[in-house]
Design a protein that fits this description.
heterotrimer; A alpha/beta (260); B mainly alpha (458); C mainly alpha (418); A: 260 residues; 4-stranded antiparallel sheet; C: mainly alpha; 3-stranded antiparallel sheet; 3 strands; 64% helix; flat
């Protein structure tokens, strides 16, 4: 793998020689990567290449899968997230996640966003909580659409709105990193455009890692791109370089549509 | 010569077998002779003949078995010897059955002398009707068989015919369920209406004094409120206080925390708990739990502590319901999409926060449906309350006192030596009607909720 | 360091205390779950412990050695009649009961006849019928003790009779053996001769009848509903009926049977036939539901394949779908039958709670079933019946658990994932 023109002076998250196993099967093979603080990093690759699996190991969501095992070193601000001293509840508050399919809780819009701050005790009183909810919904670009019906069920929104609600839900805990696992794959083009716009706006406030099978999307939203294939990291670099001047034959084949 | 239905059934089954072989052979033969291809394979022709042979005869046999004893008795009663019989009542029945037993060889000699002259007429009538029955049955069988046999031709669509009959049989089988439901509704309604002619429905539903066996019929009162209260206290309150928390927590533990190995052991354990017959639970409640609770109550100084307490019956019933609640809750929690759980965990919620604030609220409709079904099962449960709750119709909220329930009273009213038409036995049917309607409503509502809930996540 | 460090101070004391509290709540919750599972387990263990503790004693019985000298007290019966059908009456008429009582008084001291069961002489009678030579000499018979003596002996000589029992024990006159009458006899008022064979046979007959009716009806109805039924109001009605019947309290079926089978049709009351019919109606919905699930699990591709080679719809179902669904159907049927076997309430209403002292001869003769026998014995005053009740429960549980185990085995063995 090539890392020569990778210039990230202060990485938010670092991964060294990471392997992920599901039972006997090895899903990720010796992946090392740094995630920049103010950057959007895209993971691309054909389905089943392990990009989602790797993403889920960045906030230890693989812990919830029976038989999953992660080896190697992954750190957040230099702190090993798999160390016994690392508290997984706090880790996930600091490294938020947005899923492939919008998954709002069957609660009101307000309660969906307030859920995280409530469990972590981030708002001492009701007006603080209202402020957090409003800010998160504003940042997610949903405030104007829902401000008059915060009491309605989150599941009553359209697909694109639901996904922005989920992003607001993740933002509300004030995370440092947001992981997005193919956040637009279940959405229509207009909703997708809105999410992409949102990612642009969130960039700089959060470190964002997005998994996508859509190369145009990666090219549009990210500054760094990592290409995964069969559980290995084939190439990682500036997005412009990966798409215009890939160093690896396999990357070139993939982005020119030879397979995937 | 008596009319032995089982043997005759075997006889026509044998004839049907012969018909099957003959029909099969004939279809082969005809096909060979005409050098034509059979429309249906030979065994279908066989089945066609066999069915025509068997079905009408068997139907006749069923009808004749039901009708002929009455005909025989009529004949005997019309005979000269029956003139001296007592007009009505028990004695008349005893004499007749004594004579019948001797005539049919079930006993060697009459036990009641008055029956002796009736033996010969009985024997004659029995013979006569047996021969008529057998003759008619054989004639039907042969006629049916011959009719079918003559219709066999190479292009005869025997398979289609046989399959039509098969479909008819399938349809009839599925109608048994409706028939049973109608049977329940009609028999309960019919007897209840007779009861309500004697006692007003308002008294049963709103009366507060239950005393159906006060000794003097005019003093009997049928106020159902104490029974309904006892049923609710045991089945819907005490049993649910035991079953809901334990069942829910069991389901939560098994679905969210337990290792697969633990699940493999605990699930069969719950199945055993669900498979223990209710009479065993009842015995356990009466033998072990109730005396222990009574001692406990006496220790606390609670008045009216009885060895037949609502608490003993309710606790044991609750334990009986645990597997039911836990499996319903298990299904409901499992039906909540994994994404919901992941979404909560990814925000940094602990498993118990996820379960209590996301999974259980999401699973609530399903769980509620399950609980309604559990209540319906608890209030219809009989043996535990018969054995452990007692029969005194008290209106008390003291769980250590004895109360009675609808089911316990149904059993009590129907197991004495009452005549069938007395108000007491009819009251049992009226109580049964109330129980049926209430459980039916609970079931319909619960099944609808559960179904809606399943659809919501599909 | 990074500019985007979150404003939340995760390392702060307040936050750490909060996290600690949340983890404590987590541990408590998890413990609660474990306790719930353990509570069910503990209850089951306690129940089985009580039943086995009481019941194992019910399988044995105390016998008292009583020598009877028929030369001193001749039983005057015509030896040639001992092989006759009415030998029982002949021997009883000759006064054997008195002879045995007298011999017991003689051997055990005053009140000795009260220490053996009042039915003990029937054991002697059985022995004499088997070997008429016994009448010519003196023999030591090991006769069943009275219920009181049996309990005192099993309790190790406590209570009022304890002293006498101790004395017998010292003289070596007591022996304990398997209580064969328990397995061989029908109900009786004396625990020394009461047995479960009558109830067991009644249960077998009843369940057999229930199976004969419910299994074919249930499976055929399931086939119709799942494979052929058009979607209309009638089939909806059938569906609703079946789902509700499966949840109707069992005692309602007892009321139905009483009103229809006994009062309208006049089918023999309290018999295995009427019991079987009642349980069949009760079990059929269970079988229909289980069968439908099993039939549903057969993939449509199999049906398409069979239809594709020209099989008629009936052939498709009977040649392909039914055989593939059969293991699932059988599993459901066994579980339904096990439930019917343990059922008591509806049978109470159709007269099966009467005392039946004979082993049922046929499906129309008065019979009782094992759960009913348990219920009847649980009401007996004689303390000897406590352990008989528990022993009968052990037998019933063994039968039911083996049926359920068989069902689980079938399910695991034949369960296919398409």
């Amino acid at each position: 793998m090539t890392q020569d023109d990778l210039t990230i002076s202060d990485p938010k998250m670092t991964a060294h020689n990471v392997n992920v196993f599901y039972g006997e099967k090895q899903a990720i093979n010796d992946v090392s990567i740094d995630v920049g603080t103010e950057l959007v990093t895209a993971f691309i690759g054909p389905s089943g290449c392990g990009k989602s699996t790797f993403l889920r190991s960045l906030n230890r969501m693989n812990d919830t899968v029976a038989g999953a095992k992660v080896t190697g070193h992954i750190a957040l601000d230099g702190e090993d997230i798999y160390a016994p001293s690392m508290d997984v509840v706090q880790l996930r508050a600091r490294v938020g996640m947005v899923f492939q399919k919008p998954n709002p809780f069957p609660k009101s819009i307000y309660d969906n966003v307030a859920y995280g701050p409530r469990i972590h005790g981030l708002a001492p009183n009701k007006s603080d909580l209202d402020g957090i909810v409003e800010k998160a919904l504003m940042r997610a670009g949903l405030w104007d659409e829902v401000k008059d019906r915060l009491g309605e069920s989150g599941t009553a929104l359209s697909g694109g709105q639901q996904q922005r609600l989920c992003i607001a839900r993740a933002i509300a805990v004030d995370p440092e990193v947001i992981l997005m696992d193919e956040p637009c794959s279940a959405l229509d083009p207009i909703a997708t455009a809105k999410i992409e716009e949102l990612i642009h706006e969130l960039r700089g406030k959060f470190a964002i890692v997005i998994v996508t099978h859509n190369m145009q999307q990666a090219a549009r939203v990210s500054q760094r791109t990592a290409f995964f294939h069969l559980g290995t990291l084939v190439e990682y670099g500036k997005t412009t370089d990966i798409f215009t001047n890939p160093k690896q034959e396999r990357t070139k084949d993939y982005i020119t549509g030879r397979y995937g | 010569m008596t009319f032995n239905a089982a043997a005759l059934l075997l006889l026509i089954a044998g004839l049907a077998l012969i018909g099957w072989i003959a029909g099969r052979a004939r279809s082969n033969l005809l096909a060979a002779r005409a050098q034509a291809k059979l429309h249906s394979r030979p065994q279908y022709h066989g089945w066609y003949v066999a069915l025509w042979l068997f079905a009408p005869a068997a139907l006749f046999l069923a009808v004749w078995s039901a009708v002929s004893p009455g005909l025989i008795t009529n004949d005997v009663l019309a005979s000269e010897a029956a003139k001296d019989l007592p007009a009505f009542g028990f004695e008349r029945g005893a004499i007749l059955s004594d004579a019948r037993n001797v005539a049919q060889g079930k006993q060697d000699a009459v036990r009641i002398p008055a029956a002796a002259p009736l033996v010969a007429p009985y024997a004659d009538a029995t013979h006569l009707y047996a021969w008529i029955g057998i003759g008619a049955m054989l004639a039907l069988a042969l006629a049916g068989g011959l009719y079918a046999f003559t219709r066999i031709k190479p292009d005869f669509r025997a398979r289609t015919r046989v399959e039509k009959i098969v479909m008819l049989v399938l349809l009839l089988a599925s109608l048994v369920a409706i028939l049973t439901t109608f049977g329940i509704v009609l028999s309960l309604l019919f007897e209840s209406i007779r009861f309500f002619r004697l006692v007003s429905p308002a008294e049963l539903l709103f009366g507060t004094n239950w005393a159906p066996t006060s000794g003097a019929p005019q003093d009997d009162t049928f106020g159902g409120i104490p029974l309904f209260w006892g049923t609710i206290l045991i089945g819907a309150i005490i049993a649910m206080i035991v079953a809901i928390p334990i069942g829910m927590m069991t389901a939560v533990y098994l679905t969210q925390y337990a290792a697969p190995r633990v699940r493999r052991w605990v699930k069969p354990l719950l199945e055993i708990l669900a498979g223990v017959p209710t009479v065993v639970y009842g015995y356990f409640a009466a033998l072990t739990v109730a005396p222990a609770l009574r001692e406990f109550a006496v220790m606390l100084g609670i008045p009216n502590a009885s060895t037949e307490s609502a608490l003993a019956a309710g606790i044991v019933m609750g334990v009986m319901i645990i597997p039911f609640v836990s499996s319903m809750a298990d299904d409901s929690i499992n039906a909540v999409p994994q994404a919901m759980r992941d979404g909560s965990l990814a925000l940094g919620a602990t498993p118990n926060e996820t379960i209590r604030q996301v999974l259980i609220p999401a699973a609530l409709p399903g769980v509620m449906g399950g609980i309604l079904l559990a209540v319906s099962r608890a209030i219809g449960e009989t043996m535990i309350v018969v054995m452990a709750a007692g029969l005194s119709a008290n209106m008390t909220a003291n769980p250590f006192a004895s109360v009675t329930t609808v089911t316990a009273q149904i059993v009590k009213l129907l197991t004495g030596d009452q005549e069938f038409d007395s108000a007491k036995t009819l009251a049992a049917f009226a109580l049964g009607l109330v129980l049926f309607v209430v459980t039916l409503l609970l079931n319909i509502v619960a099944l609808r909720i559960v179904k809606k809930y399943r659809e919501a996540y599909e | 360091m990074s500019r985007t460090t979150s404003p939340t101070d995760w390392k702060g004391g307040a936050m750490q205390a909060r996290i600690a509290k949340r983890y404590a709540a987590e541990r408590r919750f998890r413990l609660l779950g474990l306790l719930a599972v353990l509570a069910s387990g503990a209850f089951l263990a306690f129940l089985l412990f009580v039943m086995v503790g009481n019941g194992l004693r019910g399988f044995t019985y105390t016998n008292v050695a009583v020598p009877i000298d028929f030369k001193a007290m001749p039983l005057t019966v015509d030896a040639s009649r001992l092989g006759d059908a009415d030998a029982d009456q002949v021997i009883a008429g000759a006064g054997l009961a008195d002879i045995v009582a007298f011999a017991a008084d003689e051997a055990l001291g005053d009140g000795g006849s009260a220490m053996i069961s009042e039915n003990a002489w029937k054991e002697v009678r059985t022995a004499i019928k088997a070997d008429p030579e016994l009448l010519q000499g003196s023999t030591v018979f090991h006769l069943p003790a009275s219920s009181e003596v049996d309990i005192a002996a099993k309790d190790g000589g406590k209570g009022a009779t304890g002293a006498k029992v101790d004395a017998l024990e010292r003289d070596g006159k007591l022996s304990t053996g398997i209580h064969w009458p328990f397995f061989r006899n029908a109900d009786a008022t004396d625990p020394a001769v009461a047995g479960i064979w009558g109830a067991l046979k009644g249960s077998v007959l009843t369940i057999f009848i229930a199976f004969l009716i419910a299994f074919p009806t249930g499976v055929l109805a399931a086939l119709y509903l799942e494979e052929y039924a058009p979607k209309n109001r009638w089939t909806d009605l059938i569906e609703v009926s079946i789902n509700n019947l499966a949840a109707v309290p069992s005692i309602i079926f007892g009321l139905l049977a009483l009103a229809v089978f006994i009062n309208w049709f006049g089918i023999c009351q309290a018999s295995a036939l009427v019991g079987g019919l009642t349980l069949a109606l009760m079990t059929m919905p269970v079988i229909v539901i289980a069968s439908r699930n099993a039939i549903k699990a057969v993939p449509p591709s199999i049906r398409d394949a069979a239809l594709g080679v020209g099989a008629s719809p009936v052939q498709v179902v009977f040649h392909h779908v039914l055989p593939l669904a059969l293991p699932g159907i059988l599993t459901g049927t066994i579980i339904g039958m096990a439930r019917a076997l343990g059922e008591t309430a509806p049978l109470l209403l159709i007269g099966m709670r009467a005392f039946i002292g004979d082993v049922p001869g046929g499906i129309c003769s008065p019979a009782t079933v094992l759960p009913m026998q348990i219920f009847l014995w649980s009401d007996e005053v004689d303390r000897g019946f406590v352990e008989k009740t528990s022993a009968a429960i052990i037998v019933l549980l063994i039968v039911l658990l083996s049926m359920n185990a068989l069902a689980i085995y079938l399910r695991n063995k034949f369960e296919k994932r398409w």
